[in-house]
């Protein structure tokens, strides 16, 4: 298969800098490390470790946002926006990484040769393109990948239902029975908002289906006659 | 339900790489690998595209029951002809 020559000057010259080291100067040991790192996403144990580490990472981000917002609301907004954007980019990079082929497979696809047999420049080109694709979201999502995404989203939504119910119940319990004194009524207002936001999130798929589902074709009495 | 397929055999017969087949039917190369390992059931559209690529009817490439080996089938065919 031909090498992708349609890359613009920008991608070939500027995009290079998105790779932390100059790939042409890498030795066999560095290449071995890069290939090992690139394979981590294909390993289920490593992926599960990332998923487990994500929860304390999220808790840390929430704690930082809460601390900053108490000092200054605008700074709180800025830090929360920055942290959520960073988390969003990391999640997006994971999605893209799932759909990416390995460096070794990419070598076979583009040059019809093993990665080890490629020239240094060709290896660098493949590596840099993969890094750029993760950063800029240039990856092909075929039907298999789309189905996996749908399954993951469906599973996430099934967890979200009971999760939100537990969260809202806990929130109300804390508001009603916690030692808040005069601020209890203000907290109860936030509990009402949280409850209705949760209800909105849980009802959203049904409402979207209600809006988008087309009419049934033919007769209404489909089982008649 | 598991859908058995002959993609690996057909590829080998035609000396066709996964990447070439993937490119021809419009999926990622790893999807062909998942199909060959039986880890993924293709959509009807993809199944027909793959069958069309090999110039065979879809039931010659995909089956709900395990395929008999090609050598067995060829041997039986010869026996019947003889």
Structural account:
The complex is a heterodimer of chains A (225) and B (82). With 225 residues, chain A is mainly alpha-helical. Chain A has a domain at 155-212. Helices cover 73% and strands 0% of the residues of chain A. Chain A has helices at 9-14, 28-40, 44-71, 73-99, 103-111, 120-136, 143-177, 184-212. Chain A is extended, with a radius of gyration of 25 Å. Mean pLDDT of chain A is 82; it is low at 1-6. With 82 residues, chain B is mainly α. Chain B has one domain (4-81): lambda repressor-like DNA-binding domains (434 Repressor (Amino-terminal Domain)), CATH 1.10.260.40. Helix content of chain B is 63%, strand content 5%. Chain B is built from 6 helices and 2 strands, in the order βαααααβα. Chain B has helices at 7-14, 18-25, 29-37, 44-54, 58-61, 70-81, and strands at 4-5, 62-63. Chain B has a two-stranded antiparallel sheet. The A-B interface holds A 1, 99, 101, 105, 108-109, 112, 140, 142-145, 147 and B 17, 19-20, 23, 26-31, 34, 40, 42-43, 45-46.
Largest sheet of chain B: 2 strands, antiparallel
The structural class of chain A is mainly alpha
Overall tally of domains of chain B: 1
Shape summary of chain A: extended
Q: What is the H/E order of chain B?
A: EHHHHHEH
- Report helical residue fraction of chain B: 55-70%
Rg of Cα set of chain B: 13 Å
Biggest interface, and residues per chain? A-B, 13 and 16 residues
Q: How does CATH name the architecture of chain B?
A: Orthogonal Bundle
Number of strands of chain B: 2
* Oligomeric grouping of the chains: heterodimer
Estimated share of beta-strand residues of chain A: under 5%
Mean pLDDT of chain A: 82
Which strand order do you get reading across the main beta sheet of chain B?
1-2
Number of strands of chain A: 0
CATH classification, class level of chain B: Mainly Alpha
Low-confidence runs of chain A: 1-6
Distance between the termini of chain A: 58 Å
Instruction: Work out the helicity level of chain A.
Output: over 70%
State mean pLDDT of chain B (0 to 100 scale).
Answer: 91
